[in-house]
Amino acid sequence: xxxxxxxxxxxxxxxxxxxxxxxxxxxxxxxxxxxxxxxxxxxxxxxxxxxxxxxxxxxxxxxxxxxxxxxxxxxxxxxxxxxxxxxxxxxxxxxxxxxxxxxxxxxxxxxxxxxxxxxxxxxxxxxxxxxxxxxxxxxxxxxxxxxxxxxxxxxxxxxxxxxxxxxxxxxxxxxxxxxxxxxxxxxxxxxxxxxxxxxxxxxxxxxxxxxxxxxxxxxxxxxxxxxxxxxxxxxxxxxxxxxxxxxxxxxxxxxxxxxxxxxxxxxxxxxxxxxxxxxxxxxxxxxxxxxxxxxxxxxxxxxxxxxxxxxxxxxxxxxxxxxxxxxxxxxxxxxxxxxxxxxxxxxxxxxxxxxxxxxxxxxxxxxxxxxxxxxxxxxxxxxxxxxxxxxxxxxxxxxxxxxxxxxxxxxxxxxxxxxxxxxxxxxxxxxxxxxxxxxxxxxxxxxxxxxxxxxxxxxxxxxxxxxxxxxxxxxxxxxxxxxxxxxxxxxxxxxxxxxxxxxxxxxxxxxxxxxxxxxxxxxxxxxxxxxxxxxxxxxxxxxxxxxxxxxxxxxxxxxxxxxxxxxxxxxxxxxxxxxxxxxxxxxxxxxxxxxxxxxxxxxxxxxxxxxxxxxxxxxxxxxxxxxxxxxxxxxxxxxxxxxxxxxxxxxxxxxxxxxxxxxxxxxxxxxxxxxxxxxxxxxxxxxxxxxxxxxxxxxxxxxxxxxxxxxxxxxxxxxxxxxxxxxxxxxxxxxxxxxxxxxxxxxxxxxxxxxxxxxxxxxxxxxxxxxxxxxxxxxxxxxxxxxxxxxxxxxxxxxxxxxxxxxxxxxxxxxx
Length: 816
Prior knowledge:
By secondary structure, the protein is an alpha+beta fold. Among the domains are: 31-55 and 302-417, Aspartate Aminotransferase, domain 1, CATH 3.90.1150; 83-297, Type I PLP-dependent aspartate aminotransferase-like (Major domain) (Aspartate Aminotransferase, domain 2), CATH 3.40.640; 611-784, Aminopeptidase (3-Layer(aba) Sandwich). Strands 14, 15, 16, 17, 18, 19, 20, 21, 22, 23, 24, 25 and 26 form a 13-stranded mixed beta sheet that branches. A seven-stranded mixed beta sheet has the order 3-9-8-7-6-4-5, sandwiched between helices. β6, α7 and β7 form a beta-alpha-beta unit.
């Protein structure tokens, strides 16, 4: 398999969060000497606190504090022993009071993360399967990684997509004994709820379906005795349902609770649930505070506290309804999410509210899609009505100003979040008289000389190359190889071109740049479901091209403004097409427009490195080897030159019908053997069109020892205006790849042919950079910028990749 450098999901997350940290909106420190719940001091400024998850404010209740202090005096700061041996004196009382609240004996864990690690591997049997909502809390997803070592299927669906859930259930029904769907009760970013009635209906329809809920954000402020959203919605816990709740956050103490009807299962989890067995138990102070909180939950006071918070939530909802702020999920939870669309708008708005004296949480990738960046506002009992009124007024005042300062608009935000809007606005109808954008749908409508002046020396997208691409892909009968073409030109009012680019719109495999292990897994599924995990993508350039797909005259004073106009136009096109993803491709790693693009709601990913040979002119093999390093020269003299004599090399402008069939067959061999860049397979029509284009030629290698074969290797090469030679596709008979160094010989014959034709540059593609480097190729790092409707595909790819790593790690452990 050809090796490429793949993007790392963690690197992408780190870059986004590091950017937010530099903006001063993440990783902050409270400076208060005494916390009261209502205010915080940050960088010397006192702010009203609208970012807590302690919705009822119990963490500041004097009864909880005094109980914790007394417990420390009586029992010490901790009881350093596993609960498997003995629990400290307060545990029994807490368990009893929690049972009174729920009517079910609880399992108490150190926190919900350790709780999931204790429950899930014990709960899920080898014959079971798991389906995750892709917004279920990270701690649930992390615990499910342990299941993969045992070969247990762990699938994922888009957030609360019940049609997708039912499809997954149907796929797993015949393969698994129990199917567990795992979700949050209340989701921590948007404050939306799990669709409980619909899920319970599905359990009636599919008896194998079981439900597992993390309800830590639904605790205390909802339900009888404050038992939470899930218990309030289902009334009585069924046998096929597990609920994990919390003693922290709204409950005001520390720890987590687990509830299930099955006594045998409860005992099994308690007896040997990983962290329950081997981790330290809750400190006496935490348990004492939890007992004090349980007393409040078991008293009529809890209803008064719930009503007090509910009244404040209603009041805030009323204030918001008077304006037109894009609140994403309107409900009665204490969590509100104000859509911002782009990170730069969110940073601007947060700083504005900070200056006004309001602390709010940033909601950013990967917690939400990058284009769904926003502000999470949480209400608590600490907030006073005058604080809430002032916050609503400040939000209404600063929201349009933040939009104006960051080239954003409410319509863009509503489109990004899929919210209906009555606001009439056309993004592309710019009143700017300095710059004008033109859109065309075919290269035939653009002057050949003008296009080639700015774009013509690049890869297969000179004017003639785009004629070939349009003829081949724009009307292709197979939807996997059918593209729409969009050409954008931006000029100043003197007619000078500042920016020129082209985009294609078509289907991509979501794993195109994933690791080989992920693609191999998905290709098995695609044998019966060919379009599984594919997306509609509006992309700069095309899947058939690489290089600098966008010309920008950086010397022009309006260059950056032109780029912003292009980004606005692309956003409009993206929404009109209802594409799943928008991709700006093949920028240099340290390009000067990085901040401009990222600020408009894109995240940056590493692309596979390009391999390029430039300005090589040589007249003998000796001259050629002088261009190589000493090590590469030895490689050439040992692995390449001695094998040339075994081949007849033929260059053809046209192939016969039988040669096209053979070439297509050899291409398919390479495609089947290489999942490093997983694109859709090209059919014979693509190669027939090459044959009809004057810019294509074919390098054929035929083993002298195999006279019955038409040829054993082929390079399909495009000649760009006598400037760039592009070996676009390769075909090989792998029978000879190792014995006769077929691949290396094809690479060298390509270099030799480009030299004969006096091309200044060879675009050598993005895979096998190690081999190409040994023949003198320069390796060029590249990045892309991406927007997506949701994070589902990327998170699912990351899950599959972790799955593979876990299996490999497990096998190594077995070997050891």
